[in-house]
Specification:
Helix content is 49%, strand content 18%. The protein is built from 14 helices and 10 strands.
Length: 344
């Protein structure tokens, strides 16, 4: 059994996937790299097979019909033999020195055998093309460092400061035992990948190291703002799925019992509504404004009390500006947040 399985979803990734895998090979034989070729039409499959042939004890090439990013992550989880599981996108990379610390820490939990770790959190870097200054998303002011802790010890996250997919390594069994599965053929499922499993997490460990380098800046990238607006229906679908999970009686009671977790997931849901709404405002097109209204209506139907709480909060009011002046003010705040937090 491996210590860590890393799934690398690949779709037409021939231009950059090797650099990603090369950064992961530093982990050696304790690591399993699952290169999931998601029905690519370029040389991705060929490169994946060659990498497996060159590193047969570490790399495994998996080929499947196109199922989207979520389907590729699901395949990674299904095939993982590691005690812990991480997703690394094929255009990203990791830092070797931090990688060693990550593996040493995970190994320590396995060798000690006294504590079960559900989630390891580390920092990630916004590696934005053309920018010398790289914004680091760290958690040292919010989470205890270098020890096991639970939700009751987690501090309050500020607005715009969240645990994202790039930050997390889950215990593989936690994902499997709770039947976690992402929707196929859907963009922006990385939000679900953090949101749903977090509700089952009891033990966490934060390493204050810059591990994951999250590349942003390609024009065709899914997180490019123009692309996101064109795929607003996909963002809305994820928004609705998060709403459904949060309000489902099968989960809602468990989530509410842990107040720090409830507060965190509530704030996460709030920011997703904000993103969906502000992208619609950026577009201004009637079809996109209709999508904004539909996600809010869906929440109102699912949980009227939660709808009122979110709708009458500062973000909810800002996302429903009155007139051109109000819309312009909201978009100016959005631009300021982009500069402060460094997102695309």
């Amino acid at each position: 059994m491996k210590l860590l399985s890393i799934a690398v979803p690949c779709y037409n990734s021939e231009a950059y996937m090797e650099k990603c895998v090369e950064s992961l090979l530093v982990g050696g034989d304790e690591v399993e790299i699952l290169v999931v070729d998601d029905g690519s039409k370029d040389r991705t499959a060929e490169i994946a097979d060659r990498l497996e042939a060159e590193h047969p004890t570490i790399v495994r090439a998996i080929h499947q019909p196109n199922k989207g990013h979520g389907g590729a992550v699901n395949t990674g989880i299904e095939n993982a033999s590691g005690l812990f599981f991480k997703v690394v996108d094929s255009d990203d990379k990791v830092r070797a020195s931090s990688y060693k610390v990550i593996l040493d820490t995970l190994r320590g939990f396995v060798e000690d055998g006294q504590a079960t770790l559900d989630l390891l959190i580390s920092n990630f870097v916004y590696d934005k093309e053309g920018q010398k200054h790289k914004k680091v998303m760290e958690y040292r002011r919010t989470l205890p460092t270098g020890r096991v802790f639970g939700w009751e010890e987690a501090g309050r996250f500020s607005k715009g400061h969240y645990i994202l997919m790039h930050s997390v390594i889950y215990r593989t069994a936690l994902l499997r035992d709770n039947g976690f599965k992402l929707p196929e053929h859907t963009f922006y499922v990385d939000n679900l990948y953090v949101f749903e499993p977090l509700s089952y997490v009891k033990t966490m460990y934060y390493l204050d190291v810059d591990f994951y380098y999250y590349f942003i800046g390609r024009g065709d990238q899914s997180v490019n703002e123009t692309v996101m607006i064109s795929r607003l229906d996909q963002q809305a679908r994820v928004n609705d799925l998060m709403t459904d999970f949060f309000t489902d009686p099968a989960h809602a009671e468990r989530i509410r019992e842990c107040k720090p977790m409830y507060r965190y997931l509530y704030n996460y849901l709030e920011i997703l509504f904000t993103i969906t709404s502000v992208l619609a405002l950026r577009s201004g097109k009637p079809e996109h404004m209709a999508i904004r209204d539909e996600v809010w209506d869906h929440l109102k139907e699912r949980d009227p009390a939660l709808y009122r709480k979110l709708r009458t909060g500062a973000f909810g009011i800002a996302m429903h500006p009155v007139g051109p002046v109000g819309r312009q003010a909201t978009l100016l705040l959005y631009r300021a947040a982009q500069k402060i937090f460094g997102f695309n």
